[in-house]
Fold this protein.
Amino acid sequence: MSETVSYFGKGSGRLLGTYGLFQDVLDYELSCAERYRRFVSLVMIRGASAESPVLRILADRIRNSDLLADKESHLVVLMSETDRGGATVAIERFREFCAEHPLWFSSVTFPQDAGSAADLVQAGERRLELACQDRPGAVVAAD
C-alpha cells in the first residue's frame, strides 16, 4: 500500500512516510508486547486533518513514547505499554484539550481486541465509524 502518512512525535516536527512504515512500527510494537506480555493501544480520532490545529495540540500532548500518525481520513495515536484503561484516560485528556473541536474517538488494545496489526487497525476503524454515527465527542472502545 503506497498511502502516505504523516507522523508526529512529541517535539519531533513532521515526518512523512508510507502507511507500510507505520504498519512496520506497529508490527514491531506488537511483537514486543507479545513477547513481554504487555499492551499496545491505538486511539483513532476523526474530525481533524493535517491542517487542523488539533494535530499540533495532540502532538504537543502525547507522551514521548507515543506516535501520532495522520492517516488521510483520521489520526492514529500508537501507545505502547498502554492498556484499555490507559487509552480511555488518554482519550479523556484529548477531549479536554480539544473541547472546542468536533472530534470522534475509538480505541483498541492488543491483545484483547485483536491479535495482529492489520486486525487491530481494522477493529479501530470499525469502531471509529460507529463513533461517527453519534454526537461529536463520542467514544467507541468496545464492539
In short: The radius of gyration is 14 Å.
